[in-house]
Automatic annotation (TrEMBL):
Protein species of origin: Vicingus serpentipes
InterPro entries associated with the record: DUF218, Rossmann-like_a/b/a_fold
Protein name: YdcF family protein
Domain DUF218 positions: 18-188
Length: 199
């Protein structure tokens, strides 16, 4: 379900004129940093695209999340003159409406957000008239190193079962539990948006 939510059902047939990065939990936060990282990656690929940062607040305040998102993009080699702020929207629907005021909704647009937020974001933008919009989800990548270990080599109480070779118990169970919470929360948000007529 998490992977499905992160897929874009539309593809652009031309390079995007705009890259829109959704706000997330601010900077620093996992969602904010992942989204700005992915935005920088696609902005390097599409060098003429303008970047719209959707984050409420005062973007001239050097301590604000909107300013810090811009700073993250600049640190990653993005020219600050490419960056535009949408700082009025406070949820996905209002951010889509505000972005629609900043640009021609018929221009090709690439949306960057967290995987679980992609479906609702794309549908929200399409609902208000964006006709050429696709998404790039900011999926994280697993660490390539092995985290296996032998408990007995590390000392301590040998009466406890060896779990050093059981990554299912140590990591996957807890990761999947976290994904369930994220997905269930997002499906409730999608249902709410549909009832409101926002999707």
């Amino acid at each position: 379900m998490y992977f499905y939510l992160g897929q874009s059902d539309t593809k652009l047939d031309t390079d995007p004129a705009y890259i829109v990065v959704m706000s997330g939990g601010g900077i620093p936060s996992e969602s904010g940093l992942m989204r700005t990282y992915m935005t920088a990656e696609v902005a390097h690929k599409f060098k003429t695209a303008k970047i719209i940062v959707t984050m409420p607040g005062d973007y001239t305040d050097t301590l604000s999340s909107s300013y810090l998102m811009k700073k993250e993009l600049v640190i990653r080699g993005i020219d600050e003159n490419r960056i535009i702020f949408e700082n009025r929207g406070t949820n996905t629907r209002s951010q889509a409406l505000e972005v629609g005021k900043l640009m021609d909704k018929k221009l090709p647009t690439l949306l960057v957000t967290s995987p679980e937020h992609m479906y609702r974001s794309l549908k929200s933008f399409q609902k208000i008239g964006f006709t050429k919009i696709s998404g790039q989800a900011a999926f994280s990548h697993p660490v390539e190193a092995s985290f296996l270990f032998e408990d007995n080599e590390l000392g301590g109480n040998n009466m406890i079962p060896n779990i050093g070779n059981n990554t299912q118990l140590r990591y996957q169970f807890w990761s999947h539990l976290n994904y369930q919470i994220i997905v269930y929360r997002e499906y409730v948000a999608i249902a709410f948006y549909k009832i409101k007529g926002w999707l």
